[in-house]
Design a protein that fits this description.
171 residues, alpha/beta, 8-stranded mixed beta sheet, two-stranded antiparallel sheet, 4 helices, 10 strands
Length: 171
Amino acid sequence: MTHLPIILVAAVAKNNVIGGGNTLLWRLSSDLKRFKALTWGKPLIMGRKTYDSIGLPLPGRETIVITRDRSFKAEGVHCAHSLEAALDLAEACARDLGAAEIIIAGGGEIYTQAIGGADRLEITRVNLEPEGDSYFPAIDPRKWTLAASERHLAGPGDEADFEFCVYEPRR
């Protein structure tokens, strides 16, 4: 089987918080639009808690939920019991969709498992430092280089300034 690029997509606060209480801690309409553009038409892997916080499969994507709960079932989503199984399933979904990459969309535990095998990080740096209980793993500058960044002031529907950052592995 060919290896499709694995892309981690996350909105991350200055203190690496990505959520708390199984919910987002900020509202960034601009980031939601970017997330949709980055993930549309692609297999989307997420953990069960992240899926529960969204509550439904996202339209225009094949949602794959990783869970240890063997009895978990949700209409319109695929279920896997490990990251490896989810990636295998995502490869098959990508072929069916004609997608050129696989997206990993959280949460913290899934990002930690996946970052070592990722081909790109699409990170929205949020200019906040909220308290939370879910974190993005540290981006090791010995392994990742900032390939592009674009700063934005908070616009309509945004609660904070932010920066879109693209990280690529150091070669």
